[in-house]
Amino acid sequence: xxxxxxxxxxxxxxxxxxxxxxxxxxxxxxxxxxxxxxxxxxxxxxxxxxxxxxxxxxxxxxxxxxxxxxxxxxxxxxxxxxxxxxxxxxxxxxxxxxxxxxxxxxxxxxxxxxxxxxxxxxxxxxxxxxxxxxxxxxxxxxxxxxxxxxxxxxxxxxxxxxxxxxxxxxxxxxxxxxxxxxxxxxxxxxxxxxxxxxxxxxxxxxxxxxxxxxxxxxxxxxxxxxxxxxxxxxxxxxxxxxxxxxxxxxxxxxxxxxxxxxxxxxxxxxxxxxxxxxxxxxxxxxxxxxxxxxxxxxxxxxxxxxxxxxxxxxxxxxxxxxxxxxxxxxxxxxxxxxxxxxxxxxxxxxxxxxxxxxxxxxxxxxxxxxxxxxxxxxxxxxxxxxxxxxxxxxxxxxxxxxxxxxxxxxxxxxxxxxxxxxxxxxxxxxxxxxxxxxxxxxxxxxxxxxxxxxxxxxxxxxxxxxxxxxxxxxxxxxxxxxxxxxxxxxxxxxxxxxxxxxxxxxxxxxxxxxxxxxxxxxxxxxxxxxxxxxxxxxxxxxxxxxxxxxxxxxxxxxxxxxxxxxxxxxxxxxxxxxxxxxxxxxxxxxxxxxxxxxxxxxxxxxxxxxxxxxxxxxxxxxxxxxxxxxxxxxxxxxxxxxxxxxxxxxxxxxxxxxxxxxxxxxxxxxxxxxxxxxxxxxxxxxxxxxxxxxxxxxxxxxxxxxxxxxxxxxxxxxxxxxxxxxxxx
Length: 729
Prior knowledge:
Blueprint: E1 3-7, E2 18-20, E3 31-38, E4 45-53, E5 60-64, H1 71-83, E6 88-92, H2 94-103, H3 105-110, H4 126-131, H5 133-145, H6 150-162, E7 164-169, H7 175-188, E8 193-195, H8 200-206, E9 214-218, H9 229-247, E10 251-257, H10 258-264, H11 274-278, E11 280-283, H12 290-302, H13 308-314, H14 318-322, H15 329-335, H16 348-356, H17 358-368, H18 371-383, E12 387-388, H19 395-403, H20 408-418, E13 423-428, E14 431-439, H21 442-453, H22 456-464, H23 468-474, E15 475-476, E16 487-488, H24 494-504, H25 512-524, H26 528-537, H27 541-546, H28 557-566, H29 572-588, H30 598-603, H31 606-620, H32 627-634, H33 643-660, H34 665-685
Helix pairs in contact: 5-7, 8-9, 12-15, 17-21, 18-20, 23-25, 25-28, 29-31, 33-34
């Protein structure tokens, strides 16, 4: 048997030397060693095993290997160690390693890569494994390259201690991988039933109050590449149930890009749900120490598919690549894949530029793709969340294929070829029974959008097949200072978008979701020129927006009116009608949402605001006001909710009016007295079950007191470069 042993790249070793395995009287040095064993029946190395030689008291050695060790092999190894001078040899094989992993959940929590070494059926019960099949298939590659960072440790602690964590960070910094690894940990360490929900409604739908030990993972909770207000609105409406689930024992992990959350947080009322404010774990590239960056880059390149000679050319420049700002783990993964580096020059400038400017490389890469690949990506992008399988091409999709010079057979081949690099084959978001193709990462989707926007002819073809929801979420018609824009439409195509929207719109929107998307598009994604063109071609647009209702602080139609007012597109008679409707709601509801909402500040002048407040004082503070008696009478049909919940909107409005009139103490005091009478009314209507839900306590979660949070960064122990053996074959 011929053996060769080299020093491992694992933590704890300060040297990286290669030597022949000694069989003489001198035992190997202490440390972690990687051994390649030659199979006499085949050429080259065919087995890679790991062994640990530890130096204790004189004459004691331990040998570990993940290979299977038969009785004959153990006897042979033991005899050779005895011949080498080891007095008490101990051989531990792969089965011992798997047993150790299976019986020590904390080891698996903080070294998640070991999940791949054992039989997962030993860890997960059948029910949880069935729910997590898609999750495990997605995690297989991620776990192989995962590096335990400080952000992961803090996230694990937050989930254990509080049941909730919000992972924030820039694009491609590893938020989703941390969340996915926490989901794997939840399956194993905490025995949770894991649900990969796609939005707040999905979480509430799957939440089972009778099964408190559930783990929910929601990736891109407020939008994938830019803020999607309809998702935030859903979280706001379901937040009471979400926090009830947390207090009942469920564990929840959300991820979001930082700039998206900054737009979303103003709609979430953090003051009402302190966990949203207190339990954020911010994944910031500045929080990735250099040692962690090196290890991440090393893992992705060593486990990628780059040829040995390419890795050899990269090696002198990888230290500098790891030090680049910004540093994105997702970009490091692409550097290790041939599909993303086919035109990369593996020199200093090429590698560092690739790390700093991944979007430019993606654009160039997409440009070089063949017609079949471009058409496959265009269909995936056009489909929205998921291109369903098997393919059932409609007329618009057929047109895209023909114009891009492809064919159905070519599309089928290209989809298979692109899966694993650009695309992922998985379940459709919100519909686990439907599978299909989607972009592997949002930044890949953004890069393809740049290709579309750079070619007006291609963009026109693409727009012709977009359904309403995709047009409202993927297009930008001249807005400024927007993050995560997918496709910017040039002014020359405004008429085309206007025509398509009028064909799809306006009077056939069937639900709150589509209405929300519609209003948000005109509020935040349109220039003055586009709005002017659209209002001129659709005379019903402004009247439809004027048909707003109560909940003046959250209805999106007044936001559109404010945007149109800024563009000078609201006539005087229309403004008077808006003012009249607002005054009616402010008094009759009463609804004070207009007082501290920015878009109403745009619509109303100071004199108009004072006029509305005057009407509010006149009607609500009148001795003959029937406000409280009317609310009490109307509660007859709302007995299923508590008095506090029923009167909460009224309390909020009265408090807002009182605070807005703080410069007039006498009037503010009258509102305080009205609030006091309302509180007395609430006390009279309380039932004995009011406090039942609040008394529910969450089951105890495992203590995190002894979780190592300040472990030394493994990469920091190296005295030589972690990339020394990156080009070993």
